[in-house]
Amino acid sequence: MRKCIDLESHPGFEEIQSPVLMQAIDRGLAGFSGTGVIDWGHIPPVPKTKPGRKAKGKAVPLPPTPPVDPKVVNPAKLGDEKHHRYFEYLFNTFATPEARAIINKYPKPELVPWNGGGYFQPSEGRYGAVYTPMGMTNDISTLFHEYGHALDHIIGLELHKSDTALATSEMFWNEMIADGEKMEMIVDDSIYWNYITENGINFKITTRRDFRVTKGKTRQDIERNMNPGDHWRIMEYLLKEVKLDLQNIKNTKNPDPAKVKKAEATKKSMEKLYDLYMKRVEVAKKIRSLVMKSKIGKAKRDRTAQGGIYRQRGAIGDILDALTAGELFDYEVATGENFMLGGHGPGYYNTRKDSRGGNHWSLKMADMFRRAEVWAQLHQFLAHQDNTSWDIMKNLMPNTVKRFDALMKEASAGNLAANQLREIGTQQIRANPRSPAVRDTERYETDIYTEDKIKEMTTQELISTLLHSHHTSYNDMKMIRKEIKLRKARGGNVVYKP
Predict the structure, then answer these.
(1) 210: which strand partners?
(2) What's the burial of 69, exposed, middle or buried (CB within 10 Å: 0-12/13-18/19+)?
(3) Residues 193, 437: Cα–Cα separation, whole Å
(4) List of residues 6+ apart from 90 with CB closer than 8 A
(5) Tens digits of per-residue pLDDT, 75-99?
(6) The model's pTM
């Protein structure tokens, strides 16, 4: 996704001027006729499928926005621009009075008509910016989804006094993981990564490409080398490899009983994981069948027909994509099967390569995308007058839905303690089986970078992260600005070397 940012209005712009930044600005302005708008490249990885976002076809001329029906309860009030009337019309026509009440209660993000695909950029302005289409078949679903991101962000800032982006969704992480495990979408895959760390791996993963990782590498190191489809290809290889390991140990003249026992346990654990993965695929197919037999599966592909609910089928698919950290899509790429209703595609919910070869910085960042997208999809369902998708998710993820509903009601009432989010930082957040690290008590989960990591980055990488990162936290931005100032004082554009 291409992203433009107005630098002059960006917080902290005046603090990071440097020769390197000036050069970057000059390059960015090239071809833009001095408009003052700079194209900084992509923000989060571009998904192959965007539920509730990018629609097929071109925008169609919209009829004049009708006046607000006097019978509408809590009519939405978004701003004074002409396009605000259209977005208010969508909320007033298809959203619930409760959803409109929360929208009216909190400060508003910028609303930008954008037919290139919807997204939320929290770093633009005080309350972020919602980019959402006008005249496309996904107008309603995208607006409701992206405004869900905005509320995740704004409620965190205003009610919980958070200093990180998209912080409210962090408060249902435990419920999300628990429901994901019960649904058999989240599984303990530690044997997969531990085996590669302990033994390394080297084999021809496709007819044209080898996959090689040396011993001792961490999960994140391993994932950075993985292309779309590689996770499943490696799973199939490991299944054969553990059997061969056991066979080789037993075929020695005097097999070591301890080595035999360990090899047997490893083989058993790997086979169990393989079975769990296959069971997960079958569960996803059953959920697809359930969704397609429902009202949203039969809805027409139209902007206003039944409130545009046909796109909610893809939103449910995206929740499965988030729960599995993108591994169902990975399975599709490797096998050629096609059963996912929607999602963000390879690389979005993990640190593996996306379709363009890019990676997230860390597993923490990938996990943040997972819970933020689940939050936004649930908001899309709860805000809509049609309850079909909401009822489906209540059955699939009862704890998460209950917690989300409670957070929204508390946000509506405005009665949460001002320091509640900060107190959560001292509690033990349940570790995700796919990412065993537990939150550091002195940093928030949305804080991704360390001082050492920042010093290893080039100045260009620091500037790019500061200006167009989708979820850069306040603490991380503060450290990045500090490092850029130090480099400006040194007059260099090199990686820090002690």
Answers:
(1) 204
(2) exposed
(3) 14
(4) 139, 140, 143
(5) 999 999 989 999 999 999 999 999 9
(6) 0.75
